[in-house]
Amino acid sequence: MTEQEQPKVETITISTEEGKEETFEILSTFKQDNGHQYMLLVPMEEELSEGAEEETLEQEVYPFRYEEKGDDVILYPIEEESEWDMIEEVLNTLQDEEEVD
Fold first, then answer.
1. HAMAP family given for it (predicted)?
2. Which residues pair with 15 in a beta bridge?
3. Residue 91's Cα: distance from chain center in Å?
4. How deeply is 93 buried, as exposed, middle or buried, from its count of CB atoms within 10 A (0-12, 13-18, 19+)?
């Protein structure tokens, strides 16, 4: 891949309770053995400030359980401790894979 080519970024737009729309990058999606599907989202990055290194930035990750209903995606908050533990494990694995690259 040349420097000019950018990988395609999948996004999702979420309406907040205040009616504001926010766009998030889909970091990862995965399905568990129990059939539940999960999505990890990060806010779309604003332009980096001058001199900022992209790799050194920490991002807030928002995990959700989700269902697809036709063209719609319904997001559910993570509430169970076991789900939080599983999400943490997935994030650690993704971080380890990123460090290897």
1. UPF0473 (MF_01448)
2. 21
3. 10
4. exposed
